[in-house]
Every structure is written in structure tokens, then in C-alpha cells.
Amino acid sequence: MGAIHSAAFNTAFYVGTALRMIVQSPYYFMASRKDAYRVVVQGWGRFVNRQMRIWAGATFEIEGLEHLPDGPCIISPKHQSAWDTIMLLPWIPDSVFMLKRELIQMPLFGWYLKKQRQIAVDRAQTGRAMADAIARTKAEVETGRQLVIFPEGTRRPPGAEPEYKRGIQRLYRDLGVPVIPVVMHPGLFWPRGSFRRQGGHFKVRILPPILPGKDPKAFFSELVETMERESDRLLLETVEANPHLDLPEVTKRRIFALRAGEG
After folding, report:
1. Distance (Å) of CA 27 to CA 35, 93, 95, 107, 118
2. What is the topology classification, in CATH, of domain 2-259?
3. Residue 16 class from Cβ within 10 Å (0-12 exposed, 13-18 middle, 19+ buried)?
4. What is the pLDDT of residues 161-202, one digit of tens each?
5. Where are the domains of the chain?
6. In 3-state terms, what secondary structure has residue 210?
7. Taking 90 as the threshold, does the pLDDT of residue 77 lie above it?
8. For residue 1, is pLDDT > 60?
9. Cut 0.85: pTM above it
10. What is the pLDDT of residue 146?
């Protein structure tokens, strides 16, 4: 049944997303950016979450929504799955992402991203080009938007050795807004690079903000320590609440180490 449910979800997700983009395009491109975000982008997030619930049997709850402001901030989630780029959209008032340049170059999907003024970044960029990307990000955040940036830069399996990038340290320094750490483990239910989807229930935990004004290096150390501590704690909770899950080897090793007190 797992393969059937996975196939049903993947069909609903890819076909449904394509149809929504085609049908909603006239409204999306004629509406204001904010109206298009509220109706189409946040609606897409609700659609994807609903398909995961219906076809894969995967549900989640959010703790700490009171930490998520309506105004400017940096939202800093763990990154394990395509799902974690989508699932929180209904709760983020006006998100802006720093994302791979290749995404903005895609037909139709890239046009959608450009409408929302998402920030395309070439990962090979250095110097002036990166400074320009940060300046554009700062301009968007100053209008009241919430920057979403995955501090590890790319998707990592649940429990994998962390690889935080220093880019968020510079953004913290230059943007001068609170940073909201978020830990969650959707990668157990929608694994990276896998056709398979798994059912179950998990929590998204939004942590208290790290306020602006700290030394950037001290901020970075606090962010990494806080996110890894809380991520480990939530990983144990998630696995214990979902004993049926087929876990990746790296996750099994981390769970074993945590239970043995070696974390």
C-alpha cells in the first residue's frame, strides 16, 4: 500500500500543481503581488499539505506560532525535504526566499517566483554579486517581509551531521531583524530524492527569536547550538511517536547516539 499511496500523492502533487499554475495564471499575473501571494501562493501551501494528509497520511502541528511576527524577520528552518519549502507558507504573512538561480530561470514557475520578487542567488557568487543579492534582500525585508533562509544551504537527511553556512551570520548583521529558528523533521515523511512518502504525525517547533544586536559570531554559535539541541530533542520525539517509520541509516545512527547519551 505504501507504493500506491506514494504514487497517488506524487500524481496529485505534480499534476495538481501544474493545473493550478495554468488555471490561476491570469489572476496571478493581473493581481497585485500581495494578493497573488495570499490567494495563490498560500493556497498552494494549503493544497500540498492537504494532499499529504489525504494520500500519504502525513500530518503535522505547529508549536510556537506566537514567535512568528507579522513584520520583518529572518525565518531559519532545518532543511530536509521539498515539503519544508512549502508547508509553512500558509502561516508566513509575506515570505521572500533566497533561492538557486536555476529556479528563477524555469518557464512559468520562474515567472511565478519573479512576480513575488524572490532573490535568485548563484551559489558560486562572491564579492560584489553576493553583496548585491544581500542589498536586494534587505530592501525586501525593509518593506515588512519575512526572509526564509535555510542556514545549511541544502537538504540534509534527518540526524545528519550539520553543515551550517556563514551566510546567515552576514544577513543577521546587515538586516538587523530577529532570527526565528525552526526545527522539524519532514524529511522522515517526504525524503529527499525518493519517490516514497510515509504517513504519520510530527511537530513543527518555532523557537523563540534571537534578537538583533548581538556579535555576529556569537549569534551564529547560538543559532547552531539552539537548532541542533532542539532538533535532536524533536527527532527523538518524532521517531518515538512514529515507530512504523522506515528510517535512513544516518537517522538510525543519530538516534542510537542520542539514546546512548553520546549526542
Report:
1. 9, 20, 20, 18, 19
2. Glycerol-3-phosphate (1)-acyltransferase (3.40.1130)
3. middle
4. 999 999 999 999 999 999 999 999 999 999 998 999 999 999
5. 2-259
6. strand
7. yes
8. no
9. yes
10. 98
